[in-house]
What we know:
This is RRM domain-containing protein. By secondary structure, this protein is an alpha+beta fold.
Amino acid sequence: LRDLRGFHSIDRDLYRILVKDLERDRTQSLYTMALWLWLERREFCRLVTKILPLPPSLINELADEALICLRCLDPRIPPLESSNEIPLTQGLITNREISLPYFLQNRSTGLQQIEAIVTGVCIPAFSDVAESTTARSNESCSKESDRTMFATFSKGYPVTENEVREFFNIRYGDCIYSLSMQPVDEGQQPLYATIVFQRVSFIHAILNGARKAKFTINGKHVWMRKFIPKTNSSSSSSSS
Length: 240
């Protein structure tokens, strides 16, 4: 079970957003996640990785579209007339065409396959998330270092705080909790900054599995890595 939850850590982050941040129905959210995983298995790009760093408002709308897709897969529900009711999902999937008729065409087996993902993957992988969201939220708030990244800038190419904020907010939505530039004397250039993000999932999206990430902000290079807090080394006392 631990291995399964570890393998689906990013999926768990997204499920946590659905049920905690957006306060969506837990069971519906299991099926929403199962739908996105089902689409990934059918080679419709890495949906969860694309959805995770989006602003909560967009994630909420994508979840609403997922419910529309699920209704199209359910043979007990009459088909929807419009085929253009999932614009955000269509915009997110760039490697293949997708529309509501695709789900209607997969009514015979699609819902069964999704239910198998719910029971075989989502329930065991996410079952502890909903119950522990409050405790985990308190823990994450107390551990800012888990949500903090260290940014470094090139000497001679000054980057302002506003430039950093604007870059990441445009790229990942409302993601920055706080940002502290290196304190310097007037006229000097800050060479680093610490950025606390709203959620750990933003760091996963920025690093994308790497130890460091390089960005170009208005033609100036910025390197990002996970913040590692300094620990006080304890010296051993000698007995006399």
